Amino acid sequence: MKLAFILPAIGKKKNRKYMKSWTMEPIMIAVLKRLTPDDIETVFYDDRIEAIDYDTDADIIALSVETHTAKRAYTIAERFKAKGKRIVMGGYHVTTVPEDARSHADILVLGNAESVWEDMLRDVETGNYKNEYAGDVCCDYGQPDRSIYADKRKKYLPLGLVEIGRGCHYNCEFCSVSSYYKRAYAHRSIAAIVQEIKENPHKVYFFVDDSIFSDKEFAKALFIEVTKLHIHWVTQITLDIARDEELLSLMAASGCKVILIGFESIDPQNLKQMNKEWSIKVGERDALVERIHNAGISIYASFVFGFDYDNEESFKNCLEFSRRHQFFVAAYNHLLPFPGTATHERLCREGRMIYENWWLSREYTYGSIPYHSKLVTAEELGLLCKKYKKAFFCFSSIFTRYKTLKKRTNVTYVRFAYWVTNLMLHWEVNKRFGIPLGENLDEKKR
Ligand code: SF4
Fold first, then answer.
1. Which residues of 33-49 are buried (b: 16+ CB within 10 A; e: fewer)?
2. Quick check: CB of 262 below 6 Å from ligand 1?
């Protein structure tokens, strides 16, 4: 039996290249390859960087589906179905809205695949398979098998992706991680993580977790072991890491250089609405940010606009806050109601969705707003995101922030990464708007 893994792309503008910043190493495919028995032949097509061979002799087509790639995934599935192939789909989107994917697939893998992947493949071999397999929350897969994309690695961003755990103990209203894992958290063994880092040498690693310290004692033990590896790494984390000074200093000592913090908003009313008021106590935000900077860790600050108390003042306040702290990078994105989240349910209930299933809509494009925000129109909200991104990524801002960065760190790689990231995001501000989902991906130009 032969299995073709396919990672569908988001979409691209006509005759334009695919967004470079969207081409990270596809670690989930390496995990699935590890779970696949050796006697099953495999091939992998990464739709983001190469053409799919629709004439492949594979018997099964396995698609990993996210909300932004759902439309493309369904198109690919239909083409293969017409050739009589078995279609398997899994991933966050399929798990959250299985009804969306059901008509395009023979088999859905819901939840984490680890506990059911091999059984599913064996059932397909015998022809006696189920239409749905439900996996438990688990990330016990040993070592991802990166040989599946060894020949394509040069085309990915130069970051070694490593997964520490899955899930998050918080419950933010808009968050698909929270709706998917229901506040559960599972992590890999420290031995498996350390071995993976040793076997997969990179200049810098991205620990792809959403909340790396959901289990504090585990995080401390992990940081102590990672310190011995003398690596540099980046991750996503919540601001309250800085409340625990021991944890913060262990994290810094272990080589953490940049963290993405989802501030989302600095308006207390918005934070309350999104169920994230735990993230900050009055007057605490600036002190926590400074504590992180003083530990030698730079911050990628992420803000989301379009909550019910947002207007242009909110953007101005965030820009002022970003400049005050001279962030490494800042993102000014709009709220996107992902299916299965409480935000999507609320906006549907309130009759505010412009495109309820925006991920399938022909009219919706990446960067536009699929719902009615309260204090500004959807169109104004999109324009404000663009305007304030431009303000943050203008050349004078990039140079000014670099002067501060030089005082904060003497690590050459961090300084280099600063320029690469800021210049890439500077040039991508306009390019990121108006990308049609699932379109123009069969063009030769990528
Ligand atoms: S802290 Fe982050 S990962 Fe956790 S629920 Fe909130 S947004 Fe999601």
1. bbbbeeebebebbbbbb
2. yes
Q: Which residue segment(s) compose the domain that 412 sits in?
A: 158-435
Structure tokens given for 56: 């492949």
Average pLDDT over residues 18-28: 92
Same domain, 54 and 116: yes
Domain end among 134, 169, 189: 134
CB of 172 closer than 6 angstroms to any ligand 1 atom: yes
Please compute the mean of the pLDDT values over residues 75-89 and round it to a whole number. Answer: 97
Residue 33 C-beta-side C-alpha neighbours within 13 Å: 22
Neighbouring residues of 221: CB distance < 8 A, sequence distance ≥ 6 = 190
Q: Tokens 């690596």, residue?
A: 231
Q: Which atom of ligand 1 is nearest to the CA of 279?
A: 1
Question: Which DSSP string corresponds to 91-144?
Answer: SHHHHH-HHHHGGG-SEEEES-STTTHHHHHHHHHHT---SEEEPPS-----S-
CA distances for 338 relative to 347, 355, 433, angstroms: 11, 12, 18
Check pLDDT > 70 for residue 282: no
pLDDT at 308: 96
> Within this chain, do residues 80 and 8 fall inside the same structural domain, yes or no?
yes
pTM of this prediction? 0.93
Q: Tell whether ligand 1 has an atom less than 6 A from the beta carbon of residue 212.
A: no
CATH of the domain at 124: 3.40.50
Looking at residue 136, its pLDDT comes to: 87
- Nearest-CA residue for atom 3 of ligand 1: 210
Residue in 166, 168, 302, 341 to alter for ligand 1 test, most ligand atoms within 8 A of Cβ = 168
Nearest CA to ligand 1 atom 1: 170
Check if the beta carbon of residue 261 is closer than 8 Å to that of residue 299.
Answer: yes
Query: Is the Cβ atom of 236 under 6 angstroms away from ligand 1?
Result: no
On whether residue 163 sits in a domain, the answer given is: yes
